Amino acid sequence: MHTDGPRTYLERNGPRSAREHNDRGALLHCAGDLDAAVAAYEAALGLDPDNPCALNNLGFARAQRGDHATARALYERAAAADPSCATTRVNLGNTLAVLGDLEAGAAMLGEAVKLDRTSVPAWDSLAIVLVALGDLAAAEGAWRTALEIDARNADLIVSLGTVVAAQRRLDEGAGLLSRAVRLDPGSARAWAQLGMVLFMRSDLGSAEDAFRESLAAEPADAEVRRHLATTLVARGRHAEALAELRRALAVDPDRPETLVDLGVVHLGLADPAAALKALEAAVSLAPRDERAAFYRAAALDLLGREEGRKAMERLAAEGGDRAAHYLAGDSR
Asked: Are the C-beta atoms of residues 127 and 159 closer than 8 Å to each other?
């Protein structure tokens, strides 16, 4: 892999036209040599500052490096140079969303689909931003349009099934996700989403099977292991749940949610000392996490430590319903 700057790139490749430099950059980009690709795009722009392809490609490279503000400026220049290019507007819309301007991102992606109604990436990106805006019905419509174009795209079916289930149409969502795993049996994402919808339907046995299929495809997914552990707890298999949570923490030891889950399972097994150890770690990582604070207070109280009762009273005074119910039940 080369680490060319603009000068060394030109020395290595010699004089070319702007188009040739851009095409060379695209090849380098596809090969994973981002530094050399950037140098090639910059060489193209040195010859033709308004070259829309080079501006778009350089913007994409900058976005890959996390420099979204620079990427935005480059995409805006590319869009001005070629107002008919849907791809540039997709990239600009996604970048605006990443920068936190979801409404502007959705508007730009709306322009992209008007320019090219057959662009699956444009419809997919628009749907993702619409979900972030909370407009699930519009997102569903965008994914359905994308599937009219590419009916066997399992990733799109997973997205559609997930947003349908999020609108409480669980049977329909499960059906779509089942279709996705039939199309792509190795998709960890499809199995994981199916597992969550089946869990929501209280089909715990099938949910467990789906989560295990997901983990067979992606064993290092700590979040799916959390969901599997939750399913196992619901099925009364606490020891197996503990094992799954420990595996999840081996992958991602600093995830507060997993530590809280571990503490809760230990409490369910009447082991407040082990629970407290996990919950103390969770609170240290996420001091404002109400769930972690509640279960830590419960563990302390169950151990007969006065600070636990005081912490629970403080949480109740701050409006914590769970803490108020705990105190009303005097669960110590």
From this structure: yes
